[in-house]
Amino acid sequence: MAGKRTAGLTITVTVFGLLAVAVLGWRLLVASDPSGAAAAPTVPASRTPEGKAAPPDRAAPEPAADSEQNPPEQEAQDPPAQEHAPVPALYLGDSLAMENQLVLTDLLKKTATVRNAPYSGTTLCDYLERGQDRLLVPPQHTAAALVREVKPAVVVLQFWGNSWGYTPCMGSIVQGSEAYYKRYAADIRALTAEIERAAADAGIARPTIIWVLQGPDPMSPDRIRRVNGLYEKQAAAAGDLTADAGAAVSRAGDRYTHVQRLPCTPYEREHPEYCTDGDSTRLHRDDDYLHFCLAPTTQTPRPCPKRSPGILRYSKAIADAVADHVREARTAR
After folding, report:
1. What CATH number does residue 144 fall under?
2. Which of 17, 175, 226, 257 has its CA 20 to 30 A from that of 245?
3. pTM over 0.85
4. pLDDT recorded at residue 165
């Protein structure tokens, strides 16, 4: 009898252990997805980037009256003022672009008039016109369609590299596999080519593409290193640029190790709402490894409604890259 009880106890412990591992694995899988797919389902094609039903030509969302994401003190973070009118720009991307779009727009207001069209859960192929697959972006918001409409001087592309069950255009490709990198590189080239053709169709000079380099992936550090390498290779080959926003949310000298907190910058010390934890600043919520918004994730994708140090750091790096390019382009004329 004692032997049977011992065997039964062993089986019970084993079952509960396997269940615990399965639950933990699922939570880490969801946490490693910057689209917030578990809490924010795919945005239907008939919706705007912020997830609200609206006509196709609706402009980027305005911050709510009680929103904290564009505080007055961010003026100190603006790129240097330009004597010229702001240039037209496009900002396309996934949920990281979704959450920081208004902060970036505010930082660039003296440099660029930004048209935002991010969609949570997307990847590069979602913005391609050529795709026959089901896309998460409506036809009027593909990169080429927006280039023909907006006629931008700069196109900023923010993509983490999603390839999951809710990015249909990636098919069944496993994220981080060799097939994934091959397909991702092909989509980088295809998106660049479509932007070039759309600019020619619109009768404008080819816009400069700025690829945003991503921050550390706690689940797969080498994946982000390789994705960033693909962006850098394409930018070098096509005469485009990169913005290393990921370095702004990484430890100095340790670019690809994930961290939840970093020492406060001088600006954050001067503004305690950004220096969240004494001498350190919180980049991520405890329940979200990758997003930088410190407000809870909602069912409807939205710009971040809360002042968040990670968003400010990330957006500032992108804004600086855009402002530097615009300044250099004007000087070269």
Report:
1. 3.40.50.1110
2. 175
3. no
4. 75
